[in-house]
């Protein structure tokens, strides 16, 4: 039996530890349009997700809420947006569509806390996290349609699965766009979102698969020596990282050519050229390189879930599985190998129609969203698609709600890649490079 004195000491130690953890979380600051928000209880971080008091964040973002204490369910309305969420569950609902969160809402010390990113982005705001200062900036955009994202630790590819031409050549991080320059040996550049401060930051050629995570740029190189028909790969091909200012270049993996790459937490997942059905994993410091999954082809990781095709032969079956290998299930049979998952929807194309399948309602047949006659397209969010027509090779934008199609530029396009509101474009004849704002159709000039 423990003495009363020992028990008291243990309880005091637990209180000190708990108080220290709570104090660390209390350093988090949250700003809305530049104005700091104050909360009755400080925000906390759980498994990389920031949680804040429910009523404060919903009402600050302009929504009206109703709270059902018996079911611990909040219902929030703002214009035509309806959000419902039951505390303790990992799925919230925006206009009836499920949105999965990495961490559920909790009730702590009498306060109801919910994931800040889920609430903010569901209500049409953008969220940016600064890990060094522990500052969160929310940009409130009325009438914005924002793609809900995974937590800050998960990589959301700026290149989507439906566009077959590009291989991760742009990445948006805060106010910066990082990209490979098609007219300068695919070296890495960065610029502000408005086109200012355009600067080369790396001299490594043939860069692909750009990922920016915690002030580091991760990328691969793919270079062919000699004539392309000989297909002799450069021994310098591999996986690198460097600081976002271009310093501290480190080679993590040598002598391999990457087909697909993503980052979740402190792990890099990748497949090799000519071995694209086996997913490998290495730590972001270059250690622990190992085989992660067999017979996982053309994968996409969102949060703790990996989506993939079982084989490369067409048509293919589509699966999902937790990163730890559990809860594997087949979601659909016989789809195109080009697909993209956004929130709870699986988008794919057969070259004629853009199709949508709701992942939480697998018994329902997929629906034809719109006829595009395109293999190269980007589903930017639930409302907007950027695509290239087969017949004229020009870029168009389609509003999925209004079914309006808009020509973005009169010139034929060789390759394109979407980065936020901008499209990185290589025109075909003559071969030139530029950026187009898909919302305004304006060409972006470097400044």
From TrEMBL:
Residues 161-221, 232-423 form the Prolow-density lipoprotein receptor-related protein 1-like beta-propeller domain. Keywords: Signal. This is DUF5050 domain-containing protein. Residues 1-23 form the signal peptide. The keyword Signal applies. The lineage of its organism: Bacteria, Bacillati, Bacillota, Bacilli, Bacillales. The keyword Metal-binding does not apply. Residues 32-137 form the Copper amine oxidase-like N-terminal domain. InterPro entries: Cu_amine_oxidase-like_N, LRP1-like_beta_prop, Mao_N_sf. Pfam families: Cu_amine_oxidN1 (PF07833), DUF5050 (PF16472).
